Amino acid sequence: MAKKINEHGFEEFEKGHGKKPNQKLKPYLVLQYLLRQSDENHVVSAENIVGYLEESCGIYAERRSIYRDIEEINKAMLIVEEEIDVHEAEERIAEDESEKLVVYDKSKKGFYVRQRHYQPQDIRLLAECVYSAKFLSAGQAERLANVVCEFVSEAQAKTIRHDAFLTDRVKTDNKGVLNSISTINDAMSKELDGQKHEPEKISFQYLKYSINDVGQQVERRKGMKYTVSPYKLLINDGNYYLLAFDDYAQDMRTYRVDRMKNVSFTGKPREGAEAFAAIDLKTYTKRVFSMFGGKQERITIRFINPLLDAVVDRFGNDKSSVQYAKVDDTHFSVTTQVEISDQFFGWVLGFGKKAKLIGSDRAVEQFRAYLDKVREMY
């Protein structure tokens, strides 16, 4: 008997009683369709699902079979999530409708997937974090945001992507960042591919911009490779940094991961354990402004009162490392450890007359010298 092909290009079967092909696929396809097309504000009717199965999948389904499939989906998901048997799942669903993953909305006359583990705003926040990461290229950020948005319906995902793209952000051109992060993590790992692994050094080329072509980064040190012992990956101000013991400097240094190229294992055991142990990671990023290192110094700065929020954002409020004090009715002071550098002085200078470095004497003298150098240029 010749096969009948319908308008959608699929084999057509006589409706009615009898075994129909591919019926075991239905529950899975129904769940995937509901996950993509439904949420609390967008329901899908049984007729919609029947149409989807026939037109897009070439599978014949009756309306009442969709209700049975959804019952099975709800039981299966509860069994997996709660690690219970089928009998307990049936009892819990019968006693409490909120146990169902797929819910029927009587007022809207359709089904939707109830999200129990997260809310759309959770996914929105995760997507926004992806978009705001400067160490990801635009293409990588979009791909990862799409991965995150698979946890919500297509209607919700469309809104999230639209809202997240409203703010323009500078992105790296280095498309190998994720591979670099993976290599660094493997190098630091004490177990790799199920086997014990001794943390090892890595090598890489470090990039910088050239005035000859600001759209293209070039290798520092004429392409000569850096060799370091990696200890910690840090995120600061939207950038990914590697904290590592540098073979050349014989000291701890930070490197922008998006500026690292051709990251590879060396097979040589890691060094610098003592130098890493001496670092207080809780205060490290507060002391190292813009990830530029310098000599540590305990300093005191006087600010006008309206700047308190900005100062707390920078230094935090851990009383063990930062002390705040009222100077007078219009000023307060902060005393803490920082790494003295031109970048730190530039940060203080950015407040103009609203801030004054008043200690230590050594830091004040260095600040004066910094100001003199700037003044000489004008």
Précis, in short:
With 378 residues, the chain is an alpha+beta fold. The chain folds into four domains: 4-113, Arc Repressor Mutant, subunit A; 120-164; 177-279, no CATH class; 283-376, Alpha-Beta Plaits (2-Layer Sandwich). Helices cover 39% and strands 26% of the residues.
Describe the 3D structure.
By secondary structure, the chain is an alpha+beta fold. The chain has 4 domains: 4-113, Orthogonal Bundle (Arc Repressor Mutant, subunit A), CATH 1.10.10; 120-164; 177-279, no CATH class; 283-376, Alpha-Beta Plaits (2-Layer Sandwich). The protein has 13 helices and 16 strands. The chain has helices at 26-37, 46-57, 63-82, 86-95, 120-132, 138-149, 154-164, 177-188, 273-277, 281-287, 308-315, 342-349, 361-376, and strands spanning 4-5, 11-12, 102-105, 110-113, 191-192, 195-196, 200-210, 213-219, 226-236, 239-246, 251-256, 260-269, 295-304, 322-326, 331-340, 355-359. Strands 7, 8, 9, 10, 11 and 12 form a 6-stranded antiparallel beta sheet that branches. A 4-stranded antiparallel beta sheet has the order 14-15-13-16, covered by helices on one side. Strands 1-2 form a two-stranded antiparallel ribbon. A hairpin with a 2-residue loop joins β9 (226-236) and β10 (239-246). α5 packs antiparallel against α6. The relative contact order is 0.07.
